[in-house]
Amino acid sequence: MLSLWKKDNETFRRSEYVALSNALQLYFEYLGKNSNVFPCFNSFYEYVRDVFTVILKGDEVKEKDFDISNFLYVLRPFYIGGEFDYLLNAKENLDLLQQRFIVFELDNIKDHPILFPVVTLIIMELFISKMRKLKGVRKMILIEEAWKAIAKEGMAEYIKYLFKTVRKFFGEAIVVTQEVDDIIHSPVVKESIINNSDCKILLDQAKYQNKFDQIQELLALTEKEKALVLSINKANDPTRKYKEVFISLGGISSKVYRTEVSLEEYLTYTTEESEKMKVQEYTQKYGGLKKAIAVLAMEIRSQSA
């Protein structure tokens, strides 16, 4: 009985795959023949509802193999008048392929069960397109805290594919996390990211000294590298303002480096709220970020002189 159920289930999934594949292929052919139709989700929904439904009936596709009514019901929130009708129906043709620097801020939707997976898929597809089409150009994708949610939303396979493939296309994939427990407990990190990452960068790990053995084992650090990591910021020059960072390149070269930036650079990238507010205040006062930082830095230096 179990084997028969599995076989029927696999046949059902296959029929769904064929139907969805045909819907997309025929929709693009439809767009090619009807230049007045704008390619967006609204027109895709209307094509499925008005044209593809007729094709399925002509092919005598049974409802148990592909329930077109249920399919349209699931898509309805993204169509005109639906809750998310604004999401996939922009009329502007943005050439994101040629944009050198793109930032996607996902904080407002990272916990949304519907929007986050959809937006994430769009972002991932955009990077894959850039990765494959931009020949001879260095590409980089940097995933911050959002990677935890990506892994939870069934994107683990994408992360595996990305880290195994990106270097073949002259690209780099970088993942950043502030929580050491994410590294220790995530199978995605262990199996996909770490095994395919030659460069490992660690900041001050003093608060994780008691659990650093787990990190050492996971990152395959030698005893010498462990000592280097735990030495970070332990004997800094009190007359200079800097932080130290550990960098390992393929396990061949591992060193602790001093990171010391100018006051202007510090003010540009600071995450301290009071300092950010001061920069924003000066930006409004002087009409631009560059001027604001220059004036603020000059004032700080004069006060400390």
Main beta sheet: 3 strands, antiparallel
Structural class: mainly alpha
- Outline, from the CA principal axes? extended
Name the helicity range: 40-55%
Average residue pLDDT: 84
Give unreliable regions as ranges.
Answer: 1-9
Radius of gyration: 26 Å
Distance between the termini: 84 Å
What's the total helix number? 12
What are the key terms here?
12 helices, 305 residues, extended, three-stranded antiparallel beta sheet, mainly alpha, two-stranded parallel ribbon, disordered N terminus
Describe what this molecule looks like in 3D.
By secondary structure, the chain is mainly alpha-helical. The protein folds into four domains: 1-93, no CATH class; 97-197; 198-260, no CATH class; 264-304, no CATH class. 53% of the residues lie in helices and 9% in strands. It contains twelve helices and five strands. It has helices at 2-33, 41-58, 68-75, 115-133, 146-165, 180-185, 187-193, 212-219, 223-230, 263-269, 273-286, 289-304, and strands spanning 139-143, 171-175, 199-202, 243-249, 253-259. Helix 1 (2-33) crosses helix 2, helix 4 packs parallel to helix 5 (146-165) and helix 5 (146-165) packs parallel to helix 7 (187-193).
